[in-house]
Amino acid sequence: MQFNFDSSEPLYLQVAEQIENAIFLGSFATGEQIPSTTEISRDFQINPATVLKGMNILVADGLIQKKRGRGMFVLEDAQEKIRTKRKNEFFQDYILNMIVEAKNLGLDENVIISLVERGFEEG
Questions:
Q1: Please, which residues have CB within 8 angstroms of residue 92's CB and are 6 or more apart in sequence?
Q2: Cα separation of 63 and 16, whole Å?
Q3: How far, in Å, CA of 66 to CA of 109, rounded?
Q4: Helix 37-44 with 48-60: angle, nearest 10 deg
Q5: Residue-level pLDDT at 1
Q6: pLDDT by residue (tens digit) across 28-73?
Q7: Kindly report the CA angle at 119 between 118 and 123, in degrees rounded to 5?
Q8: What is the 3-state composition of the chain as percent helix, strand, coil, each rounded to the nearest 5?
Q9: What is residue 92's DSSP assignment?
Q10: Cα–Cα dist 94/12, whole Å
């Protein structure tokens, strides 16, 4: 995990994003225990309350589960929930903006599809 202490993004959100990304990429598998609040706060010099606030976001999102006295564990469908969330964000952030710009340029659906296909070929 890497945190940017100079960022305008709050540390608790960075904690949540770092753990979410680790779950998505498979670094923390289903049923696996994630590092404790104490471990993260000690290793990265972050206030434990800040770390806990980030973890509570993931609990609220249904990605991790608190097991009293044992720690936090990755829930079974966490990776798929993240994938669905990211697909929706991709649609909102990129696809809709692309369509607006395409309409401004007078491009129709077929031209957009051919440009996307070209992008896949060249990328």
A1: none
A2: 10
A3: 47
A4: 130
A5: 83
A6: 999 999 999 999 999 999 999 999 999 999 999 999 999 999 999 9
A7: 120
A8: 65, 5, 30
A9: I
A10: 26
